[in-house]
Hints:
Layout: H1 2-27, H2 30-46, H3 50-63, H4 69-80, H5 84-97, H6 105-129
Helix pairs in contact: 1-2, 2-3, 3-4, 4-5, 4-6
Amino acid sequence: MANREAEEGLDGILERVEKAMEMCKKAKRREDLRDFKLLKAQVKVCEGKYEEAIRVYEELVKEEPRDFRPYLCEGIVYSLMMKKEEAEKKFEKYRRLVPKGHQYRGFFDDNVIAMKVFGQMEENRRTLKI
């Protein structure tokens, strides 16, 4: 993906993701469509378009409120936006929904902890500059 990103940029990646989403809609492949929507939101995050990413995640939550992935992603984005309370609400929802035996639970938990630490470090940095 990094090689392709260098050649076509994020706009090209987003265009291909949106084409794949259309194909999934036509083929009625809901799970694949959800995965591509998650990818679309991740591209938006890479572009720094956090509000747009949040809108995609919220759409995913409306479609399937029991899927823990959008909550985790929203928590990360809110952390990047320095919206600590909103982030914690999303992380809490994620923790309630992620299955205990899920193979990536530890990985996801590590990301949640890392985002909390990053958020606190950034808050401390801002406080010291003021």
